[in-house]
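Entry 14. Structure prediction run on the chain below.
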Amino acid sequence: MLGTAAGCFVIGAGATVLDVILRKTAGVNVPAVIEFTSFVIGLGALVSFPVCYAQRSHVTAQLLSELRPRTFSRPLGLFGVFVAMIFAVILFVVMADNTWSKLGSPELSRDLALPMPVLLGIVTVILGVSAVAAIIGMIAELRRKGAGK
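Output returned:
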């Protein structure tokens, strides 16, 4: 079973690599490569499920904050909200830059023909709200005193 799963992952990755090479060298693509890759990699994941369940090898973790809450809760909490805040802000900035570059573009979405600048704008606004929420979370964590409060 795991060999089949690994084979599916290799075939999916191989199809993507082949598509990239053909696009670069010959200017053609592998027809339906996105769908094919999605199906093959999905199949690989599904095939690995029974093995994981049978061997009880699913992912489990005991966090440091559970082992020694007084020692680790505060530093890990601060680290977590800091990383989340940085990630949210970077994601927002990258998306805002992309959206700004597409303003006024006549580009439409492939299937529904929705204006891409509007779609990107919606995503950018949501990411902006997420960045603000991450900053508020960081401020709240910094104001929190002690490990258990």
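The first helix runs from residue 2 to 25.
Filed with the rest of this week's runs.
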